[in-house]
Amino acid sequence: AQKVTQAQTEISVVEKEDVTLDCVYETRDTTYYLFWYKQPPSGELVFLIRRNSFDEQNEISGRYSWNFQKSTSSFNFTITASQVVDSAVYFCALTAGGSYIPTFGRGTSLIVHP
Amino acid sequence: EADIYQTPRYLVIGTGKKITLECSQTMGHDKMYWYQQDPGMELHLIHYSYGVNSTEKGDLSSESTVSRIRTEHFPLTLESARPSHTSQYLCASSGRAGTGTGIITEAFFGQGTRLTVV
Prior knowledge:
Chain A is an all-beta fold and 114 residues long.
């Protein structure tokens, strides 16, 4: 069985603050993929990043960075210098083994105040 | 840009009506999924398909049904809509990133259908 836990239900910050969204996953498979999606108020899910289990390199894309640590089964997402447009619900997801079916966390609602 | 389309975007319908939510993708993905989501809440998998003529129920029990007669098309049908079916329905697909590669793509999502049953 696989599971994704996003313990933070809602985070509220002021613009320009840095914020980290936590994601902890569980799987018995050695091959798996981790994802982050953003869901703005309009409702569509926007893909942000994919990371496979054999690649523990951290990644930076502009103000976004991801920290993948197999030792703690975590795949955390940091937004540097947050902006109002970052306000959205962020979902972490896991696809493991041969099932292909993405398992999503409950999501973290990020509110960035001007 | 994702090539997966859902229609309609918004639907308001009376109780007892039969409705079909359409979902099509042009990426040749064999895996397709339907999720149900209340605004800003978690996604619940209600149906999935591994390919043509393959459909399975997901984790969340749903009164809807699906079909997969063609690779690109994965419609969801509610035979008799009820107010409890009011929600957003998201369709998604995934596959392999290139021929011969074992890399699994992310799930590509449609824009969703917001269903209101009155």
